[in-house]
Amino acid sequence: xxxxxxxxxxxxxxxxxxxxxxxxxxxxxxxxxxxxxxxxxxxxxxxxxxxxxxxxxxxxxxxxxxxxxxxxxxxxxxxxxxxxxxxxxxxxxxxxxxxxxxxxxxxxxxxxxxxxxxxxxxxxxxxxxxxxxxxxxxxxxxxxxxxxxxxxxxxxxxxxxxxxxxxxxxxxxxxxxxxxxxxxxxxxxxxxxxxxxxxxxxxxxxxxxxxxxxxxxxxxxxxxxxxxxxxxxxxxxxxxxxxxxxxxxxxxxxxxxxxxxxxxxxxxxxxxxxxxxxxxxxxxxxxxxxxxxxxxxxxxxxxxxxxxxxxxxxxxxxxxxxxxxxxxxxxxxxxxxxxxxxxxxxxxxxxxxxxxxxxxxxxxxxxxxxxxxxxxxxxxxxxxxxxxxxxxxxxxxxxxxxxxxxxxxxxxxxxxxxxxxxxxxxxxxxxxxxxxxxxxxxxxxxxxxxxxxxxxxxxxxxxxxxxxxxxxxxxxxxxxxxxxxxxxxxxxxxxxxxxxxxxx
Length: 504
Known about the structure:
48% of the residues lie in helices and 8% in strands. It folds into 2 domains: 1-112 and 378-409, Uridine Diphospho-n-acetylenolpyruvylglucosamine Reductase, domain 2; 118-375 and 443-504, CATH 1.10.630.10. A 4-stranded mixed beta sheet has the order 3-4-9-6. Strands 5-11-10 form a 3-stranded antiparallel beta sheet. α11 packs across α13 and α13 (296-327) packs across α18 (453-468). It is built from 18 helices and 11 strands. The chain is α+β, with helices and mostly antiparallel strands. It is globular and about 85 Å long. The protein has helices at 2-25, 28-31, 55-63, 88-97, 125-135, 141-165, 175-191, 204-214, 220-228, 230-235, 243-262, 270-278, 296-327, 329-345, 352-356, 359-371, 405-409, 453-468; strands at 47-48, 51-52, 72-77, 80-85, 171-173, 378-381, 386-387, 394-395, 400-403, 471-474, 498-503. Its cofactor is heme. It is found in: Endoplasmic reticulum membrane; Microsome membrane. One of its GO terms (cellular component) is endoplasmic reticulum membrane.
């Protein structure tokens, strides 16, 4: 009995100490005179109404308590404080003007146990700087023009695949079809492999893609743990990539490289660039000369992240475009007319130059990204203490900074009637009038902006042209208006985009 009493007293003491520790941590923003949302023990602000909240809900609630005198608000993940930027001018400081204070993302990676996680998006410090310099020449306009015929070839197959996927009532849930299209584009352009997922929905690359996004390796609470306690997570050998996915990409990449090197195959594609980096044959981004070799694991991680970011974000974006064109038939007709007019000027051929001449289509895609940004927030990490301009506040070294992309792009003070789909916001005559600079952040900004944005936009535009030339999209009984979204996914993803399809 005495032992039980002793154990009980130790347990009560331990719980009390933990509670007091959290209580002390939860006074961080109050002590510094920063507006904040009252945290809940032990979750901080990640629990609302008794359950784990989505990031969108967490950010939205914090944004409502902003004050004009301070350009950020404070929040907590568990007992760890973080900054939510609430002012666009301050966002520009974080992303561009004072980038040297915020060059890290603070994303979790585990190079030893999970080499695919150590990619360009996640790496920080000198490793990121060197790798960014190596990868910068990858997606230049010249490279895009060279890859264009391959993208066009896959897009032509997309049109036929859509017709074969229609149900008896000419309805279509379009997300999976588009994911298969982008899988084939990326598989061909990045890996030099014919994936054939448009003709075979169960093709190997597509199965891996579904596994990545439909069966995440870590639950949300454990993903949060890796971000808050990265060093401990590495000691615990926590991996963000499943063994199934890791083995697949390592095998595919090894087989591709061995085949190309043994047969002296050269293609002016992404894989060729990676092989040059592996062999130390690359040139510096400034043309100054070689900048060193990448290991096999390093190039595997870069191929993986471009697959990861390339097909899911692009598929979601194109789904959103088609949804909005289905809702707004007048805009759809205007886009289609531009497509036919431009193609007529280019002898009926869908060329790289013709795509660049489709300015209204650009506006439609940009407005879609404004309304549905693939990544709803950007994250940076302070690498040293930062004095916040025009205040007496300090953002301390190690602090995570969230920039609420979706919230900014839906703020009526920045974009009037934000729920209205209006491509004319981005016309050459009106773009930027009455809006702060940096009001559009769908691709980030500054030195850590999206390196693959040209490639992503090119494959989306080509896919849309291929479909809109042949089909009109209308409402059907299953169409969701407004759209519903999946929770706890890294990319803003609709639950279902049902379209009625009429062949032109």
